Amino acid sequence: MLRVTQKRSLIGRPENQRQSVRALGLRRIGHTVDVVDNDSTRGLVMKVQHLVDVVVLAQ
Predict the structure, then answer these.
(1) Which neighbouring-strand residues pair with 35?
(2) Does 19 score more than 80 pLDDT?
């Protein structure tokens, strides 16, 4: 599992980055979600790594 927290605003960001953050389940700055650790989720996180913080949770 990955714990993903949105740290920066989406204002002025390209649409593909907005969609990636939304696909991760994040809605606002400070919002935290736990997502499954797989290749597709890692890809979304890599696209918006400058907007989020990620912590790998023990399985």
Answers:
(1) 2
(2) yes
**pLDDT at position 41 over 80:** yes
Q: What dotted CATH number matches 2-56?
A: 3.30.1390.20
Nearest alpha carbon to residue 52 among 35, 36, 31, 37 = 31
- Enumerate the H helices of the chain as residue ranges: 15-23, 39-47
User: How, if at all, do strands 32-35 and 52-56 pair?
Assistant: unpaired
Rounded to an integer, what distance in angstroms lies between the CA atom of residue 28 and that of residue 9? 8
Q: What does the block give as tokens for 3?
A: 């714990």
Predicted TM-score (pTM) of this structure: 0.91
Give the length of the chain.
Answer: 59
Q: What is the pLDDT of residue 58?
A: 81
Q: Where are the domains of the chain?
A: 2-56
